[in-house]
Design brief:
Distance between the termini: 20 Å
Radius of gyration: 21 Å
Strand content: under 5%
Number of helices: 8
Number of domains: 2
Structural class: mainly alpha
Order of helices and strands: HHHHHHHH
Shape: elongated
Largest sheet: none
């Protein structure tokens, strides 16, 4: 489901598609392998610079998509230029996913009093979010709540105050929040799988 704040199903890289990608990089397989590793490192740096939570996965996804097109017979003149063009589209998708996940988490950590007592049965995603937040240690749940709460304009200042209170640099706070969010997302995915079983 494209709009859900959970990982997309990836197309599986085959040996044929990987060979097509290597052949497009260089005629000599050893040289092609070195170019592949260099290109992958550059992609990881590109996604890390853009603060994507899993830059390695985003780099692999970009390379997989190019390999799939090559295996399908598409001819590409400037392979590196083309790879970074695909990477820019992946970046847009990843940022959209990050935004959707942030919204889902912010919605999950709102004050319970804001919910109507007679409200309809919550959606499975909301139920799983609430369950998984409760499964986290209280300090982790509090950190996520504080990190994702507040209006956009005030959020940066709130995060600075939070980082100072925990004795952390802003990057260290962001990394801790990202790790907690990844843990929360894994719990939510598992919860949703269980809830969908007949």
């Amino acid at each position: 489901m494209r709009n859900a704040p959970f990982p997309r199903r990836r197309w599986g890289l085959t040996q044929q598609s990987f060979d097509s990608l290597l052949a497009a990089l260089a005629p000599d397989r050893t040289v092609a392998g070195e170019k592949y590793e260099t290109l992958r490192r550059r992609l990881i740096q590109f996604f890390a610079w853009e603060a994507i939570p899993s830059p390695e996965d985003a780099a692999d996804l970009s390379l997989d998509r190019v390999a799939k097109r090559l295996a399908g017979g598409e001819e590409i003149d400037n392979i590196e230029h083309y790879v970074f063009g695909v990477a820019r589209y992946v970046l847009i998708e990843e940022k959209q996913d990050v935004r959707l996940k942030s919204i889902a988490i912010r919605n999950a950590v709102k004050e319970p009093a804001a919910l109507e007592p007679e409200a309809a049965e919550p959606e499975p995603v909301q139920q799983c979010l609430e369950h998984c937040l409760a499964e986290l240690p209280p300090e982790s749940s509090s950190l996520l709540t504080a990190y994702y709460s507040g209006e956009k304009s005030a959020r940066i200042q709130q995060r600075k105050v939070l980082a100072a209170g925990l004795g952390l640099e802003m990057n260290a706070l962001r990394n801790r929040a990202l790790r907690l969010r990844e843990r929360l997302e894994a719990c939510i995915e598992n919860c949703l799988r269980v809830s969908r079983r007949p």
